[in-house]
């Protein structure tokens, strides 16, 4: 064994501890179904933990232990996870629903081979036991950091005795002040394609505006940049085909991006007047900034889906788009 890899060291961290409420009962009722659902919910949790800068340290059975450099990020992550899982549970029969308790504490931890130990972990685990299913419980130390920073409501649970510690720990339940779950999609609309399409379109537009507006771009112009990044030296007609828009719209976007200095024109082969399009150096820099931002926006929108579900959704959307565009071409032909 590498002696260096087994060395124990200490550091201060925000500690996140999650566990499934009623896990034994669920496993006894449907072991295979519960494990499949647990894997799906863990994918949601893993994405949120990574998104908020956390690191998963230990997993055992139905529990997850993670650390964050910021307790504010840890609490935002925990609240986001509970909201996502609650929304996903609406599509699951009540007897099969997985709900998590989450506890958070700030304190010193011991690290060995990536795993965490110590009183800090013990306190976070005890906070988890105090949380109601679907909620987050903070120690008094964590509460002191976030109570004036995050727009949350807190229920004071008073001082609590913690196993293996002499001094009691104050505990607080945290939940959003505006109760966002009360605005969840009404069951009557879940099978309405018109309503679902409208609301999904609104969510996507909102996510894209957050990325494009600071750069002075329209919602479709990142597709122009992506196309010219992947296929430089193409003309406007070919660009329009790649993006799936009409030629006039493509020309209008190109003119705008030229004015901003992100697109440049070059002469075609043998001096022809084709005027091919490519990204300028500034355009390449912009694309390098936009690409990770768009991926992050996509992950936020799709956080409730597993990777397999995302691929299935993309495949279904591609089939719908292809079928409708083929129909449109036939009508116009």
What does this structure look like?
- The chain has helices at residues 23-29, 31-51, 71-89, 119-130, 140-146, 193-212, 221-230, 236-243, 247-259, 281-301, 307-332; strands spanning 9-20, 55-60, 63-68, 100-112, 115-117, 136-139, 152-160, 169-176, 263-266, 276-279.
- The N and C termini lie far apart (71 Å).
- Strand 4 and strand 5 form a beta hairpin.
- It has 333 residues and is α+β, with helices and mostly antiparallel strands.
- The strands form 2 sheets. Strands 1, 2, 3, 4, 5, 6, 7 and 8 form an 8-stranded mixed β-sheet that branches. Strands 9-10 form a two-stranded antiparallel ribbon.
Q: Could you give a short account of the major beta sheet?
A: 8 strands, mixed
Poorly predicted residue ranges? 179-184
Strand content: 15-25%
**Average pLDDT number:** 83
Assembly of the depicted chains? single chain
How many helix segments?
A: 11
Radius of gyration: 25 Å
Structural class by SSE content? alpha+beta
Distance between the termini: 71 Å
Order of helices and strands: EHHEEHEEHEHEEHHHHEEHH
Task: Bin the helical content.
Answer: 40-55%
Shape: elongated
The count of DSSP E runs of length 2 or more, i.e. the number of strands, is 10
């Amino acid at each position: 064994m590498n002696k260096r890899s087994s060395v124990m060291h200490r550091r201060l961290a925000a500690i996140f501890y999650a566990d499934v409420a009623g896990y034994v009962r669920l496993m006894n009722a449907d072991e295979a179904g519960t494990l499949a659902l647990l894997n799906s919910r863990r994918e949601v949790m893993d994405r949120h933990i990574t998104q908020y800068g956390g690191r998963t340290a230990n997993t055992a059975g139905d529990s997850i232990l993670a650390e964050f450099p910021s307790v504010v990020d840890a609490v935002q992550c925990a609240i986001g996870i509970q909201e996502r899982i609650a929304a996903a549970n609406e599509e699951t029969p009540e007897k099969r629903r997985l709900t998590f308790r989450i506890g958070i504490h700030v304190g010193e931890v011991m690290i060995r081979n990536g795993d965490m130990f110590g009183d800090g972990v013990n306190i976070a685990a005890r906070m988890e036991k105090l949380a109601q299913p679907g909620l987050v419980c903070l120690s008094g130390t964590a509460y002191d950091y976030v109570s004036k920073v995050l727009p949350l409501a807190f229920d004071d649970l008073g001082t609590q005795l913690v196993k293996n510690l002499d001094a009691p720990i104050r505990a607080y339940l945290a939940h959003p002040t505006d109760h966002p779950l009360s605005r969840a999609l009404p069951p009557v609309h879940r099978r309405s394609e018109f309503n679902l399409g409208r609301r999904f379109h609104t969510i996507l537009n909102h996510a894209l505006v957050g990325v494009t507006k600071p750069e002075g771009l329209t919602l479709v112009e990142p597709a122009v940049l992506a196309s010219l990044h992947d296929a430089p030296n193409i003309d406007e007609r070919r660009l329009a085909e790649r993006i799936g828009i009409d030629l006039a719209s493509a020309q209008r976007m190109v003119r705008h991006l030229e004015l901003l200095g992100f697109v440049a024109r070059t002469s075609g082969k043998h001096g022809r007047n084709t005027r091919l399009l490519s990204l300028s150096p500034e355009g390449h820099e912009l694309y390098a900034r936009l690409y990770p931002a768009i991926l992050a926006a996509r992950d936020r929108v799709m956080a409730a889906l597993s990777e397999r579900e995302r691929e299935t959704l993309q495949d279904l959307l591609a089939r719908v788009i292809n079928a409708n565009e083929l129909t449109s071409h036939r009508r116009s032909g």
